[in-house]
Amino acid sequence: MQINERLTKVREKISKPEFTKMKGLANEIAFYIFDYDPKDEPIVEKYIPTLIKHFDEEYTDRKIAEINLYKILIENMKKDGVLEEVFNLEKDLNDQELYETLINYARKEIFIDKIREALNSYHIIFITGISHIHPIIKSHELLSKLHEVVGDKKPVVLFYPGEFTGDVLKSFHKGNNHRYYRARPLIQ
User: Fold this and answer.
1) Helix axis angle, 108-119 relative to 69-79, nearest 10°?
2) Is pLDDT at 18 greater than 60 in this prediction?
3) What number of other Cβ atoms are within 10 A of residue 110's Cβ?
4) If you count DSSP H runs as helices and E runs as strands, how many of each does the chain have, helices first?
5) Which element (helix H / strand E) includes 115?
6) Domain 3-12+30-67+107-185 belongs to what architecture?
7) Which of 17, 56, 126, 151 has its CA 20 to 30 A from that of 82?
């Protein structure tokens, strides 16, 4: 199925009343993963604001918070006054040194706090920006941490550039697989 067809199915699925009521989950949490080919990232990134706007305009019980991990990281680094410094250091650091520098500013708690805030005002949480922040933040680790915060309160959709088989996340279609059992594919 082409990416545009799959994105249309996302809209259809979220439109169903049972989506926000989380019916049919057999007491499981409502964590979903929308996986896609990384080459389709520009299409997905462009579609998400359109999708959110649609639900803002058409539904009162489908307000969607977009939690863009990359934007949050950049905001956090700006707030700490280190963004320009890190950009300047980038040319002098090897990949491992840059990774270790960035990981200090990408603490999971920062992202978790943003999601916790969104739970009060929104019905659905979209997590985006994975392609820009991987491997600094690993999706399976973030989702595991979210269980404590979100639980069964709201549906969470992770937009994932790679493949999700139902129990394994394979980022960017590469060999770095991570097991994650508690989510389900948003679209088969």
Assistant:
1) 110
2) yes
3) 16
4) 9, 7
5) helix 108-119
6) 3-Layer(aba) Sandwich (3.40)
7) 126
Structure tokens at 109: 């708690």
**Are 140 and 179 in contact, with CB atoms under 8 Å apart?**
yes
pLDDT in tens, 119-178: 889 999 999 998 888 778 777 778 778 877 887 778 999 999 988 887 777 766 555 555
User: Which string of DSSP letters, residue by residue, matches 47-101?
Assistant: HHHHHHHHHHHH-SS--EEEEEHHHHHHHHHHHTT-HHHHHHHHTTS-HHHHHHH
Q: Exposed (0-12), middle (13-18) or buried (19+): which is 31, by Cβ within 10 Å? A: buried
Residue with tokens 């019905």: 123
Q: Which range, 66-70, 80-84, 148-152, 177-181, is most confident?
A: 66-70
Query: 135 preceded by cis ω (within 30°)?
Result: yes
Alpha-carbon gap, residue 155 to 64, rounded angstroms: 10
Tokens 């600094």 found at: 136
What pTM does this model have? 0.88
